[in-house]
Amino acid sequence: MDTQKTATIVNCPTCKKSVAWGEQSPFRPFCSKRCQEVDFGDWASENFSIPGAPAILDALDDEDIIQH
Ligand SMILES: [Zn+2]
Q1: Span from the CA of 43 to the centroid of ligand 1 (angstroms)
Q2: Cα–Cα distances in angstroms (integers) from residue 20 to residues 9, 35, 62, in the given order
Q3: How far is the CA of 40 from the centre of ligand 1 (A)?
């Protein structure tokens, strides 16, 4: 029962490298600052692509209103 000694290892979301969850890994769960920035860039670009979809739904809504 010495679970306190068990090191927690996570995988870097960007490159899947093993990263020790501790003070030695300031960018955890990422292995490095570079991987952290790459992941944030992906998230930001996904966010930017979303505004296109609701516009199409709005157009369909308007058409529906005209038919009534
Ligand atoms: Zn990484």
Answers
A1: 16
A2: 5, 15, 53
A3: 13
pLDDT tens-place string over residues 23-56 = 999 999 999 999 999 877 766 676 666 555 555 5
Structural domains present in the chain:
8-67 (3.30.50.10)
What percent of the chain lies above the pLDDT cut of 70? 54
DSSP string, 1-68: --GGGPPPEEE-TTT--EEESSTT-TTTTSSSHHHHHHHHHHHHHHHHHTTHHHHHHHHHHHHHHHH-
